[in-house]
Design brief:
Blueprint: H1 4-15, H2 21-33, E1 51-52, E2 58-62, H3 70-73, H4 81-92, E3 113-117, H5 130-147, E4 153-157, H6 159-170, E5 183-187, E6 195-201, H7 206-209, H8 216-233
Parallel strand pairs: 2-3, 2-4, 4-6
Antiparallel strand pairs: 1-3, 5-6
């Protein structure tokens, strides 16, 4: 587990990142143009750092900030419908003190959990390029794995997060097929002396939730399983 100072250093580095010009232009354009329902708000418009506790045993990885969600509020999965689904599920599973996530000042706190994303800036059409994915992962994902080294269960929200986490956690082993509820036991990797687990979940995007591909009971089952694994690990 990294120190508070190390976490603050990483957060500052992420917030000031200018490595992907296309993404930075898009985030700033969205922050400037806004949308009608939030036109009076001041948008964050910068890259998004992880949110949670430094000694988290549950590490949740999404794809990227939403243009009018985290890119507006400055906190991952906050201010959009995907975040509504995520934090409701975390609250029901005992990983959050409340079910709503509206702003950085809403009082939301996570317990034994941290939420991050593969790409730190909101991409156009929610589609980062392969180069942007690689660049962001290379800069920050390994740092996060080291800082949140207490993690015992990793939940990947979507296939891109699954692929990214697998590459970090297994590094070279054949990648298992992603699916909702897919689960892989990670044993003694990188010198670990205890088992760790990777769980796959459909992303709580409107594309999945509006069509019924992902239901709240399905999503709850993911975090119930994470809770069970953490209980077994002590």
């Amino acid at each position: 587990m990294g120190s508070i100072r190390e976490h603050q250093r990483l957060e500052k580095e992420i917030h000031g990142c200018e490595a992907c010009p296309r993404l930075r232009r898009h985030c700033l354009a969205v922050a400037r143009e806004k949308r009608r329902s939030t036109r009076t708000e001041e948008y964050w418009g910068r890259p998004i750092a992880p949110f949670g506790v430094t000694d988290a045993r549950l590490f949740i990885m999404g794809l990227a900030p939403a243009a009018h969600g985290a890119n507006r509020t400055g906190r991952i999965f906050t201010g959009d419908r995907s975040g509504d689904w995520l934090y409701r599920a975390l609250h029901r599973a005992g990983f959050a003190n409340q079910s709503e996530a509206k702003s950085r000042a809403d009082g939301l706190q996570l317990a034994d959990a941290v939420v991050s994303c593969v790409v730190k800036c909101a991409p156009p059409d929610n589609k980062p390029s392969p180069a942007e994915l690689h660049r962001c992962m290379a800069r920050y994902a390994s740092q996060e794995m080291n800082l949140y080294s207490q993690a015992r269960v990793y939940v990947a929200l979507g296939g891109i997060a699954w692929n990214g986490l697998w590459k970090l956690l297994e590094q070279g082993s054949p990648r298992p097929v992603f699916g909702h509820g897919a689960e892989v036991k990670l044993t003694r990797l990188h010198g670990w002396t205890e088992d760790r687990h990777l769980i796959g979940s459909y992303h709580p995007s409107q594309q999945n939730t509006f069509t019924g591909r992902l239901t709240e009971p399905m999503f709850d089952a993911i975090f119930a399983r994470a809770r069970e694994l953490l209980r077994d690990s002590g």
